[in-house]
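Quick check before the chapter quiz. The format below is the same one you will see on the exam, so make sure you can read both the input and the output lines.
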Amino acid sequence: MLIYLLLRNEPASLPIPWRLSVPSAKELLTALVGTIILISANVVGGTFLQYLNAHSWQVTSFPSPTNSALHYFDSTVGMVFVGLSEEIVFRFYLINLLLLRGVSPAMTVIGSTLIFAGVHWSYGAGAAVFAMLAGLVLSTIYLSARNLIVPIIAHAVFDAFYFAGGIAFLWLIYNST
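Here is the expected output.
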């Protein structure tokens, strides 16, 4: 898509321009609400997601680093890069590509969400179902804020919280009550 935009003779603007600006207070609140929705859905739906993962084809597992410093780096900084790269590909690039092709915004969100869920299928059916919900939330955040930084923040904070053990801790508290 970028090569096409560079080589064509007439200027073209993307449906949602590349905006990487400091988020406003409203945009930060949107990221916070989206992160809370993702955390809540993962905690409340944890049993269901675990059931789906246990009864599905799961081909991917990553070993944890043996060095605690590397584990901390992977669980925090590494998650920021995952959030950054996935948001660029699935929210900015794919949504703009589909919008440029004349696909409606609703179908664009559905298509982006389904592809995002499909990419996470190798982690199990539960991961794919949660990725579908996450894709829907993050696409909605991106379309409402029109600033790529906002879903990147929500995604990176959720991933860092999840991989640092925050979800597991909240899940234990939730199940003990």
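If your answer matched, good. The longest helix spans residues 77-100.
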